[in-house]
Amino acid sequence: MAGASTPYNGACKPHHIQQYWMKRLNLLPLALLTSLCAASYILGISHHHGGGGGGGSAALTAVPCRDSIAAEHGFGEATALDFAAHHAAGELAVSAAEAREFPACDARYSEYTPCEDRDRSLRFDRDRLIYRERHCPEKGEQLKCLVPAPPGYRSPPPWPESRGAAWFANVPHKELTVEKAVQNWVKVEGDKFVFPGGGTMFPNGADAYIDEIGRLIPLRDGSIRTAIDTGCGVASWGASLLSRGILTMSLAPRDTHEAQVQFALERGVPAMIGVLASNRLPFPARAFDMAHCSRCLIPWHLYDGLYLIEIDRILRPGGYWILSGPPINWRRHWKGWERTQDDLNSEQSTIENITRSLCWKKIKESGDIAVWRKPTNHIHCKITRRIFRSPRFCPADSSPDAAWYAKMEPCITPLPQAHNIKQVAGGELARWPERAAAAPPRIVRGSVAGVSAEAFAEDAAAWRRRVGFYKAAAAEQLRRRRNVLDMNARLGGFAAALVGEPVWVMNVVPTAAPVDTLGVIYERGLIGTYHDWCEAMSTYPRTYDLLHADSVFSLYKDRCEMEDILLEMDRILRPEGAVIFRDDVDILVKVKNVADRMWWESRIADHEDGPLVREKLLLAVKTYWTAQDQNQDQ
């Protein structure tokens, strides 16, 4: 066949017109036809640029970035694109409901946490604190308004100054300063809260307390990177560990004491609302190198050790559990704790028995601190089931990583198979900071569907390039940020590319994601959580400075309403906080329409690979306003 071996060059194929018709072709009609086409083209151009009349197609025109956004918010590097449909056809007109701005919520909702709402929680069982778990509003109960910042709200001080101070106006609660005055948790000085670093069990400060722990386990050699602090207070333990290269997920319910998690987040310390009750914590198995409880009020000795079994699930092979406070060192403290010696002795004996049944080894009890270690594999533990008939190992077909609204199970989560007693089950992790770039054992072992070590390396390189592009397109936005949320983290490449920057990233693996990658993220020395974006997140309003939404709306298309996800993003984003959306251009046009109604400033920009890529970026900034501003407007 003619032309069959000719490479395709991307141009249109020529039409072969028979010579017979070429000879018969009259040139005069052809010239007339050409003139008419040219006139029609010129008329069309003048009509378009004149701005009059309606057309039947969408204008796809590059326009300069608005001065207010470019100058004020640092979005001046990439050209803004206008993908709005300029139609007059009735069927394409935007409805009045779609065009109007969202109203502000009443000022009483300034600290609204939809899935941990106090009033709603009272409908649920108080046994085992089940009422403090997530209980989200039904479809008809969801607020369709913008949660306001309190009057006088100010952007937090820059890191690391924020670690020791927060603005009083941002969290206007003095209750904790009164309740915990003796323990030196937090004080009010002028218009600021200051955090001296004290705690119930560390009156000499968190640093001195951590130094004591450091004499029992290695805190500075990079082998311990991820930690969880249950019942975290104002997160002074997690804040102090940051200087040692340890990233802590600080966890507390809403609210044992007023606004403790909110204080942590205002300080720029990783934290989220959570409680050990009936559901598993929203983390994968083998996530944390270290777990900590300092007088956290969790009844470890009750419910047949169910809460310690859950800690065992999320601890890495060889991970540590640290307990201070009741019942540790009860012989010294029993009078101050206002409990009997027999009661405290019985509680500690029960905890010791539970930890032995989990095959943990007690490393040391020194003063007010006790440390246990989880085995590096389960070879010996399986043998000891002849002695400890409870708890049994979970069935082989159970999912150790299933944690979204999954009930805790009274069984030991089995570690991956080990071939000898010295082998670390699941694979040994590199030390930090090498851990961030090393191929995670889950990928090396082939446990993550469709992801090889080579694909992981390519993904890491791609995200380094993308973050470099973000820094060029929105340099000022990235410079001023501390608390960052990646709403669809995939392999954690975005967060890994920010290692070394003065930020921390909460990596979310959506429950709708086709592949569960949160275990990989933790094996990189990063932290995160499972979440369903059809629901509100377990955090306070104004938690994050920067949101990164990579293909979130493609993922949730037809699952829930776009505006509900965007309203939740507005709730958890600080005034003047930024959002980087990455998605298909058609979806981003719809997102921008909703974002503009939320009083955000936004613009669409090209993909880092150029204008021919359908995937685009939407760069947005939440404008500053408070409940006071709204009251004055009204």
From TrEMBL:
Position of the signal peptide: none
Localization terms from the record: Endoplasmic reticulum membrane; Membrane
Gene Ontology process terms (BP): methylation
Positions of transmembrane segments: 25-43
One Pfam short name: Methyltransf_29
Its membrane topology: Single-pass type II membrane protein
EC nos: 2.1.1.-
InterPro entries linked: Put_SAM_MeTrfase, SAM-dependent_MTases_sf
Entry GO CC: endoplasmic reticulum membrane; endosome; trans-Golgi network
Keyword list, A-Z: Glycoprotein, Membrane, Methyltransferase, Signal-anchor, Transferase, Transmembrane, Transmembrane helix
GO molecular function per UniProt: methyltransferase activity
Family: Belongs to the methyltransferase superfamily.
Family matches, as PANTHER family: METHYLTRANSFERASE, SAM-DEPENDENT METHYLTRANSFERASE
Protein name: Methyltransferase
